[in-house]
Amino acid sequence: MDELLASLVAAAIQFSGLPPIETLPPVQAMPYQAMLVEICADERAAVPMLLAQYRQCSEQHRMMTTVCDELKVEADSHAQCMQQRGLVAAYLIEQRRIVYRNDLNLDNDADNSFLVHEYVHALQNQYFGEQMFETCQGVMAAEEQAYAVQQKYLRSRSQLLRVGDRLRLVSCRDIH
Ligand SMILES: [Zn+2]
Question: In the chain, which end has fewer C-beta atoms inside a 10 angstrom radius, N or C?
Answer without folding.
Answer: N
